[in-house]
UniProtKB/TrEMBL annotation:
This is Long-chain acyl-CoA synthetase. Transmembrane segments: none annotated. It comes from the Bacteria. Belongs to the ATP-dependent AMP-binding enzyme family. Keywords: Ligase. Residues 27-340 form the AMP-dependent synthetase/ligase domain.
Length: 491
């Protein structure tokens, strides 16, 4: 086993990738040099399509320093999505790790070596007039929605800095000195909370290629590979998606191992987590705490913390954020909002309607139930958020993924994908029964079917960032879902 990396004093190293360790003076110098190089040509928007690396972090900081707009493209975007975001943003240049034939790029790219990584700087051909950018845009993050092309969210320096500084203030008592970037850096949550905030606090950011973290594409994750990386780097903090937490905690429990004692905070976001999973993770030494945020709010808005924790909630608002819930149960946020959407001249309102439903409890903890547009009305007139029921189902060890339906039906139905392919139907039925015991009668599952395929983009059952495609899942399983004389699982 590779020996663990010793933790340096606070501020001694700010950015690390294997043998490359950059203290603040060296990082600042590299950022300034890169900013001068990129700003020497007439450019406005520079896109990056790169794996996690120290070079990615330097480019992000340098583009901001040069006054250029950064368009970070996730590696899990498809070729048509990449073409769309380049076209819509009017990107002048694209930086990749190699010449990218799949995009049909022409011309000879300029070689660029940065932080030990060989890069290719492509100058993009002139295009039709792009969609307008709100004044002050520093970064464009594209959300991968459930249908159609991704939507560009334009963020300004002030909003990004507010979130970073809010996190610095909130996390100060934890004395976090090393953060391991476990999500793709183009994902806004990792970019802001996992890079900008630790750097602002003087903590060390460790960046590794995603394959070294067990990540492939948008939804494949190997917890054994991930655990090895965590054991080597011994971070104080991580940010995980719920499915990553579920897989890692389950692997630790199955192998009789524990997370390293160095961990002080594992923030979990991107989707609902659920109390059952959080408590199971803590049993194997993962200090998991759920948070909530959205791209339109420049990333994270609320977070549970050690000493201010209510498992099952999304935490209290962070110092930069304000939250209220209207009489329909819709959550609104303020304080670090986007400048607007790409191509839409309308500025963001003071309070942003998130489209999520939930409530604030008497102690100020936010409880998120799901999406307003997903709310089901059963045949008995009860409103049910399917995400709430899905989170409860996924809290069962046998269930990896669940999608719930039931609009105008007397009871709810679910499509289930097991955590293990050899899980029996009896195990899934027991898991559903256990979940039902945690739910009120109107939100219980009356009928379920085993999914015909994993919920992945390759199967056409998830978006590029891993969110289930509800309509596609319902269409594929409609006969079994709504013909209750059929078996509960396909032959």
């Amino acid at each position: 086993m590779t020996p663990p990396i010793p933790t340096p004093p606070m501020g001694e190293v700010l950015l690390r990738q294997d043998d490359l360790a950059l203290p603040r003076p060296a990082l600042d110098q590299l950022v300034q040099q890169t900013a001068e190089t990129l700003g020497a040509a007439p450019r406005r928007v520079v896109a990056t399509l790169l794996d996690n690396s120290a070079a990615w972090a330097v480019l992000d900081l340098a583009l901001a320093e040069a006054g250029l707009v950064h368009l970070p493209i996730p590696g899990f975007f498809t070729a048509p999505q990449i073409a769309h975001v380049l076209q819509a943003s009017g990107a002048d240049a694209l930086i990749t790790a190699a010449v990218m034939d799949l995009l049909g790029l022409t011309g000879t790219p300029r070689p660029l070596t940065l932080a030990g990584t060989a890069l290719a700087l492509h100058t993009l051909a002139a295009r039709p007039v792009p969609l307008p950018l709100p004044a002050g845009t520093q970064k464009i993050t594209f959300t991968s929605g459930t249908t159609g092309n991704p939507k560009g969210v334009c963020l300004g320096a002030a909003g990004l800095d507010q979130v970073a500084q809010g996190l610095v203030q909130a996390l100060a008592p934890l004395d976090i000195r090393r953060h391991l970037c476990a999500l793709p850096l183009p994902v806004l949550l990792e970019n802001v909370a996992g890079l900008l905030a630790p750097l602002a606090a003087g903590a060390e950011c460790v960046v590794l290629p995603l394959a070294r973290l067990g990540l492939e594409g948008s939804s494949r994750f190997d917890p054994a590979t991930f655990h090895a990386a965590v054991m080597q780097t011994r971070p104080h903090s991580l940010i995980l998606l719920p499915q990553m937490l579920r897989a890692w905690a389950g692997w630790l429990a199955a192998t009789g191992q524990r997370a390293p004692a160095s961990l002080r905070l594992v923030a979990v976001g991107g989707a609902a987590v659920g109390e059952t999973l959080l408590l199971a993770a803590r049993q194997v030494g993962i200090p998991a705490h759920e948070g909530y945020g959205l791209s339109e709010g420049s990333s994270v808005q609320t977070l549970n913390l050690p000493g201010a924790d209510r498992a099952g909630s999304a935490g209290r608002p962070l110092p930069h954020a304000r939250v209220h819930v209207d009489d329909r149960g819709q959550i609104h946020v303020a304080g670090s909002l986007m400048l607007g959407y790409l191509g839409d001249n309308a500025p963001a309102p003071v309070w942003w309607p998130t489209g999520d439903v939930g409530h604030l409890d008497e102690d100020g903890f936010l409880h998120v139930r799901g999406r307003l547009r997903h709310v089901l009305i059963t045949a008995f007139g009860r409103n049910v958020s399917p995400e709430w029921v899905e989170t409860t189902l996924r809290g069962q060890p046998a269930i990896a993924q669940a999608v719930v339906f039931g609009e105008a039906r007397p009871h709810l139905s679910a499509v289930l994908w097991p955590l293990r392919p050899d899980a029996s139907d009896a195990q899934l039925q027991a898991a559903v029964a256990e979940a039902n015991r945690e739910l009120p009668d109107y939100a219980r599952i009356g009928h379920w079917v085993r999914a015909r395929a994993d919920f992945t983009p390759e199967a056409g059952l998830a978006t590029a960032n891993g969110r289930p495609q509800r309509q596609a899942i319902e269409t594929l399983h409609a006969a079994a879902l709504y013909d209750e004389t059929a078996p509960a699982f396909p032959s």
